[in-house]
Amino acid sequence: QVQLVESGGGVVQAGGSLRLSCAASGPTFSNYHMGWFRQAPGKEREFVAYISRSTGNAVYANSVKGRFTISRDNAKTTVYLQMNSLKPEDTAVYYCAAETGFIVTSRPADYDYWGQGTQVTVAS
Asked: Chain centroid to CA 112: how far?
């Protein structure tokens, strides 16, 4: 079982940047596809980005494409989300998640392990 701990959230002005980190415990981090999701008050949890375990292929939600970058460092068992040009609508709790399945997906239900989340607030 893997434990995930997010950090790096905070309050930022619109147009600013934040870098989220998600540290994973356990020696098998490289076996997991990793994803970032977010949930705003009153809304369902939504996909932000994922990065595959083998090729490092990254896929993004249309709403963040060109502004956010997901990356992973298997040696440090950490996945990152660099967020630039932030908008007020990016305000949410951001979660990282790990998937053990063969094919990486953007569906929250397919992810096996979740972090506790970190709050990102973008002020207008």
From this structure: 14
